[in-house]
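Protocol step 4 of 6: record predicted structures for both targets in the notebook before any analysis. Target 1:
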Amino acid sequence: MKIKKILALLLCVVMFSVMLVSCEQDETQYWLDWYKDNNIGQPVDVENVKIPLYIIQGDEMSADYNVKKTVNDKINQYLSDKYSTTVEIIYLDESKVVEGNTVDEYANAIASFSASSTGIVLINSADVMEQLSGKLVDLNPYLISSDYASAGYGTLNKQITTSLIKGAKVVENGVEKMYCIPNNHIVGNYEYIVINKAAAKAQLYAESDLLAMNTWEMTEELRSALGDSSTGDGVDYADFDPDNAAAVTRVINAPYAARAEIESYGNIVNISAYPTVDDDEVYSSAFAVLKGTPLKVDSETVLVDYAVYAERAMQVIYEINTNETVRNLLQYGVENVNYSIDENGIVKPNADKRYDMNLLYTGDIFKALYSEGWTKEDADYGVLQNKDSEK
């Protein structure tokens, strides 16, 4: 009897052990199945993508190869960690002399791109956009499609001046497309009616009447009374001569920031026309993506397919325009290596390791560190001017 009880007890222990093992196996299988169901289509490894980035370098760039390499490597740290993407920055000269001949590396690169070329390319004119017609990726879906909402690309629609975004959009066969992302910058100029206050008041004109003269036609009577033979042709601010007493009424094309200076010479300055954006303005500084079929780069870095390549390129453009660190690396280089920042927060280039780039060509100008060529006042006036371009 005792033997039967012992055998029964042993059998229960064995069965309980089998149940525990079975439960553990079922739970393990459950989580394996859950993971598979919730990661359908997810690759085991994220592909590393390397993309050429063609850009125009500044006129005073150091000839030291390591200066460019250090900056390129630093930028790639950010891009690789976030997107598993790196760029090979190809610095091009617009004009340089080689063995007595003038060579435009940028123009030659643009001319060399074919339907199979890949890479991100700086656009610096409407002519370049025309040259690359049919060779560029349509980037509009990234800015408007809900498929990319989580990536945040659509924020560029609000960050970049609306008139630039609108100007970059084209309609093809009833479909809106966008072949480049303009680098945000100060756009256009105002057309000002400038009147010499003292000369006009000598003719018994009230200041309130002068302030109302915002078209050239409205100054006709005043010009006749003054014997002023000025034409209504606009004069660029760069050619404005405040000491020209003969022209007491004139039209000057100038930025917002110039208005106070023109007034300081004893002038009344009325806005005749607000800044406008044309193709030359839109395409003066933008990034586009060449739509060739991606090729294998090396044994570790492979551009797996067109969709991956195109979005990775868009991610780089997005970072240049939204990530101040990446944008300023591309512009000024590495802090305490290529430049330092003084007590006023102004960038001071290191003459020995100068990393020189054109401020317009390196992303959103309003995210650039302040320098002698780009001050807080410039930025503040630029924001106001760009808002006026949308009136």
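Target 2:
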Amino acid sequence: MQHKSDPAEASEFLEMHPEVRTIELLIPDLNGVLRGKRIERSALLKIYHDGLCLPGSLFGADITGDTSESTGLGFESGDMDQLCWPVAGSLKRIPWQDKPIAQLLMIMHQLDGTPWFADPQQVLRSVLQRFGELGLRPQIAVELEFYLIDRQRGKNGAPQPPVSPVSGEREGSTQVYGINELDDYRDLFEDIARAAEVQSLPVETAVAEYAPGQYEVNLVYQADVAGACHHAILLKRLIKAVAQRHGMEATFMAKPYSEYSGSGTHIHVSMLDESGSNIFTGDSEIGSERLHHAIGGLLACMNESMAIFAPNANSYRRFQAETFAPVSPTWGWNNRTVAVRIPTGAAQARRLEHRVAGADANPYLLVAVLLAAIHHGISRKIGPGEPITGNAYKQVPPSLPCHWHSALDAFADRNILADYLDPRFCKVFLGSKHEERQQFESRVSPLEHQWYLRLV
């Protein structure tokens, strides 16, 4: 069914913002990269009435922007246009631009009005529909880790931590939860908060993380799961743009430094029944039986989901023992060394936290596979085994596919996800990622020159 938004939304916006002359139409691709086009304000109502034609091959693009022909979305299909419609509630001003400008998220459909199978937003929506059959409604919160980096590159073009605007010294120490670090970048984080308010992005907290220049920004818990993913995508864009205005860059690359921690995307999930009660609440801190079933589904599906959690070559640098990036399917209460954590807190707010995915993961696809696994676990009453107490890295050997090729093989051989993901989408995803991997592995790196050029 077509996903049309009320044109009154556009009319009201234009009336409230006569200064806005240009609107950016944005659609997140397979990698979560925002693509689209700009229009003048005079064309906005037409977009709401008639939609916007964009090529479906947009979702066959790899990280470089080239269409992977093995996806079947390029020349094989004639590079056909599909029809995009506005996402309700996403028309907002862009506060970091010098000129008055706005942005609008779009979602793609086929010309007959059915969902475009390759759009990650549609992948998520198809999974969400399955919970209605169980009389359940998921709620999620997204936590995003990122690095601030200097615009001036270091040796061999490598990134380097920023120079503190207060001390004038380059960041060089790990001060997890450090308040001084937040104080040094107070102006930047205040600008992030103001811009988020303008765009109605529900930012909750910001903390210094486990490396120099690394931070985390959290979004509030909400029942609109697709909306939470919209917010995550747009918050990434906002943070990058505000950092640039402060003379820095922000990166959500999973592992920009060899010597420092990687950046993750942590997803918190709870589940409401038809009466609005949280079904994960139980008599103890480890929650209810259905919470355990949800965790059981996540653990059972973890191997075949890794290609979504870790979507590119750099993603796999992050998976190292005792770095808070899980390397085995484990769970426990109040334990950050496991893959799925039950956080401490009030019983009525009982939830799980999934800690495997990198900051580079596409939030729509990430949440889609997590919810598919949770649905599988709850509907089939899958047990998670015993929880881990203490250091999971010391107790459970690594078993997740922590290399790109093995993760793609596990996704190709999917068992649980085969019941939830359209095979046409899976063909597109695998085609794009295999071509990207082949291109990456065919390049000769500077390290190879350094090690082998003169000595072999």
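Step 5 preliminary note on target 2. The mean pLDDT is 93. The two ends are 62 Å apart (CA to CA).
Proceed to step 6 after PI sign-off.
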